[in-house]
User: What shape does this take?
Amino acid sequence: MTWIVLSIYAAFVYAVGSIVDKFVLSKLVDKPIVPVIVVGITGFVLSVSIYFIHGFGVLSTPQTLLGILGGMFFILITFFYFKAAKIEEISRVAPLFF
Assistant: This one.
């Protein structure tokens, strides 16, 4: 039964996050690259701090390259999400992204 509550809570959090994204893009920043840079820097700082607290296991070269490629695609997708949210209504953009 808790999965129902968690599912509703997750949908609520995604909705609030999308509304905040649209507000930030329409009122606070002019270019969609600004929130992308903030997301990228935040992710980098958190990953470095987790590394120093817990450390990582040894990764092979293909695993490292796959991780870097995944991070690059995440930043690219985030940029397209913010660009689309700047242009279109968030109620049309968010279902495509999530």
Observations:
- The mean pLDDT is 89.
- Residues 2-28 form the longest helix (27 residues).
- Helices lie at 2-28, 33-54, 61-87, 90-97.
- The CA atoms of residues 51 and 57 lie 10 Å apart.
